[in-house]
């Protein structure tokens, strides 16, 4: 890794959101899946993650808007703790309202050299003092920020795999009311495909259900809350999403016992029947649970403890939508996709945990699938409500009991 010059010869000029920057050629490091890149890439840059970066720009600018009256955020201090090529930091600096101070950190020394080259390449936009560079393990950087009381307004955590070991120290390094953006790419673990790894990494029982991606989000949020509580802090999920091969949450950090108790009321378990897709979320007191399905009496599976409260703050999501509408497509290339997702997110949270995957239910019943709009209409006619979920295009969130939903689907099939 010492001979940086030989690596520099492999760099190509790229462009994202109107910013030109050096990166290694992602096409040479494609994995079989087409969405993930090989870890052998000398400094990580995945063009598919443009969506992750763009939604992050929107999330942080919307946060800037809602925090305008807070003195701690007059200068927005951002720690991009796993900066890789630095494209996220540079795009953030260019997009956010000044004054903004950015710390770009990465454990990989070569990444720091590339970030420096990218700052130099964009010298007409950024000066050396705007983005400070660090080459540390993010955990030690966070502890150092905490010890020196150099607290941050926003911390971005974007690791390979699980973010588990970074969350607690990040919570200590952030101002109260600050925002932490956390990516997790260990989806096989969070979605219940590797249950023992989930116990090991999160101390939580996963649940491989028909709504496993939502369970993954709820596990990560609960885990973050559990890291905050020992410090008398609590979390507020502002925006949570699942996309491609990763999930990402934006949580706000607050202080106080009343809020911690509220977090605990939003924590619990989800019980699920493998045979008939019946589900129930309950709080932390397992005495209130049933372990057999009330429809078919099969033994229920369960996951938890996990977050059973809201995944988003709807006022904040509305602010994100306004911020996005005011942004140029040249700066936020996936503007259309983000707008679609945020508009779905605004309504999906009004329902109990767990979406209904209509195709899976119809497969289970061995029947054909009716048009989603017709299913929605029938649900409303019965006095229930339903909305799409951003997590699965063929799924819906609803307060209708599964038996009644099945009746609707069977009726359509019989017609
Ligand atoms: C997925 S990449 C980050 C991508 C980047 N945020 C972006 O948007 O392009 C993960 C980065 O984390 C760095 N990293 C891995 N472990 C780390 C640690 N303990 N502390 C800081 N950085 C670390 C890696 O070198 C890599 O550059």
Task: Compose a concise summary of this entry.
The protein has 15 helices and 15 strands.
Please explain how this structure is put together.
This protein has 415 residues and is α/β, with parallel strands linked by helices. The chain has 2 domains: 304 residues, Rossmann fold, CATH 3.40.50.150; 60 residues, N2,N2-dimethylguanosine tRNA methyltransferase, C-terminal domain (Phenylalanyl-tRNA Synthetase, Chain B, domain 1), CATH 3.30.56. Helices cover 38% and strands 21% of the residues. It contains 15 helices and 15 strands. The strands form 4 sheets. A 7-stranded mixed beta sheet has the order 5-4-3-6-7-9-8, with helices on both faces.
Question: Tags for this entry?
Answer:
415 residues, alpha/beta, seven-stranded mixed sheet, three-stranded antiparallel sheet, 15 strands, 21% strand
């Amino acid at each position: 890794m010492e001979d940086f010059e030989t690596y520099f010869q492999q760099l190509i000029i790229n462009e994202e959101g109107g910013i030109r920057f050096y990166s290694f050629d992602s096409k040479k490091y494609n994995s079989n899946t087409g969405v993930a890149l090989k870890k052998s890439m000398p400094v990580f840059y995945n063009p598919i993650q443009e969506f992750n970066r763009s939604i992050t720009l929107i999330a942080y600018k919307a946060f800037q808007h809602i925090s305008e009256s807070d003195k701690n955020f007059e200068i927005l201090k951002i720690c991009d703790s796993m900066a890789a090529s630095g494209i996220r930091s540079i795009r953030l600096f260019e997009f956010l309202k000044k004054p903004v101070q950015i710390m770009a950190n990465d454990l990989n020394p070569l990444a720091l050299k590339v970030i420096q080259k990218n700052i130099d390449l964009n010298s007409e936009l950024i000066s050396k003092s705007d983005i400070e560079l660090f080459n540390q393990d993010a955990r030690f950087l966070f502890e150092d920020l905490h010890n020196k009381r150099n607290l941050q307004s926003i911390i971005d955590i974007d690791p390979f795999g699980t973010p588990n070991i970074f969350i607690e120290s990040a919570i200590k390094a952030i101002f109260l009311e600050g925002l932490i953006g956390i990516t997790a790419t260990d989806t096989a673990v969070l979605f219940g495909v590797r249950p023992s790894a989930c116990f090991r990494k999160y101390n939580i029982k996963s649940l491989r259900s028909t709504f496993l991606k939502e369970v993954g989000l709820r596990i990560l949020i609960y885990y973050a809350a559990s890291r905050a509580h020992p410090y008398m802090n609590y979390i507020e999920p502002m925006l949570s999403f699942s996309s491609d091969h990763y999930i990402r949450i934006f949580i706000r950090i607050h202080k106080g016992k009343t809020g911690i108790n509220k977090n605990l009321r939003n924590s619990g378990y989800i019980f699920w029947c493998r045979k008939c897709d019946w589900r129930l979320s309950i709080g932390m007191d397992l005495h209130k649970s049933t372990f057999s399905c009330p429809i078919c009496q099969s033994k229920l599976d369960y996951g938890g403890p996990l977050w059973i409260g809201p995944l988003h703050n709807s006022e904040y999501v509305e602010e994100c939508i306004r911020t996005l509408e005011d942004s140029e497509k040249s700066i936020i290339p996936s503007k259309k996709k983000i707008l679609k997702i945020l508009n779905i997110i605004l309504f999906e949270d009004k329902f109990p945990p767990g979406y209904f995957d209509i195709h899976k239910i119809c497969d289970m019943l061995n029947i054909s699938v009716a048009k989603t709009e017709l299913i929605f209409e029938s649900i409303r006619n019965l006095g229930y409500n339903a909305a799409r979920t951003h997590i699965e295009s063929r799924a819906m969130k609803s307060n209708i009991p599964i038996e009644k939903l099945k009746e609707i689907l069977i009726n359509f099939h019989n017609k």
